[in-house]
Amino acid sequence: MRAGVTPHDPERAAALELVHRLRDVALRLDLAIGEFAKTTGLHGTDVRALVRLLDAERAGAEATPTWLAQQLGMTSQATTAVIHRLEAAGHVERRRSRTDGRSSHLQVSDSAIALGWQFFGPLLDQMVATTSTLTKSDQAIIANYLTALTQAID
Amino acid sequence: MRAGVTPHDPERAAALELVHRLRDVALRLDLAIGEFAKTTGLHGTDVRALVRLLDAERAGAEATPTWLAQQLGMTSQATTAVIHRLEAAGHVERRRSRTDGRSSHLQVSDSAIALGWQFFGPLLDQMVATTSTLTKSDQAIIANYLTALTQAID
DNA sequence: CGACAATAGCTCACTGAGTGAGGTAAATTG
DNA sequence: CAATTTACCTCACTCAGTGAGCTATTGTCG
Lengths: 154, 154
Description:
DNA-binding, about 150 residues, mainly alpha, 6 helices, homodimer
């Protein structure tokens, strides 16, 4: 960054460096999604959608097309297309909602789960292994930090 | 996640939870890029490229079209188009490399830097502020963790 | 209750971002 | 100094994503 943009402050600089390191990790996770997309023949957006749907399932949340559109930062029409592609590939099933006749519930298939684990499994294992080398208290420190960051970003 | 996919292991579950939280932060950062793209009229890819170019400048690295293509996980042709768009918008300048006649060096303009700070500045400030509430030793723990993660992902 | 508005999701026509094929020029190799 | 590799580019095309606008269901309020 050029001179004059930020006042010289060593403490801030250290914190900023940490934030940049975090962004670097985020970037690499995104590149991994791109690689997964290439190897499976799916599109980046489709993989991103699949990941979000798997996350929703893990969290026990109801995944609807509108919810997915927000998660992807896209329009509802584009999301409709994404769902159609995933449906055609047999990765997701569309079920009409019981409580709301307009809405539908998106259910990921077992094949999609298997596919996801096949690629992201090793990556997650590596990350989990790295995490597991830390003490419980260190893990707690990081978890709290990440939670605070999530709130700060919103 | 459905039953039977992972063996029940409380320690692993805790580490996995931390990894998921990290992914959540990564997702939000990506959504912020999307928002930035919408407000500026640029495209998501263009913003992502700009961010990477700013990172390269900060790190003092030479940014070339090929390097950028790798960073974005795209083909060189698509990257050429990105550079053309950014060039037309006055955000980047293309300069022929001194050492290699085939290559060119990408230089971000002051206007691009100002634009980036205008949008990402508040976000970074929030993240830095959150980081600054931690003790130095806690920051060191997190920094080491993130570095280890970066290596683990590759 | 019945009109009115808001919400969830969709189709259609179109734009343009990204890809594959292939080309040029500079650097490297044997 | 030919042959190969590398860096970047143009061209033609495809299809992912957008805007406009539709239908059906749910919610609101006199």
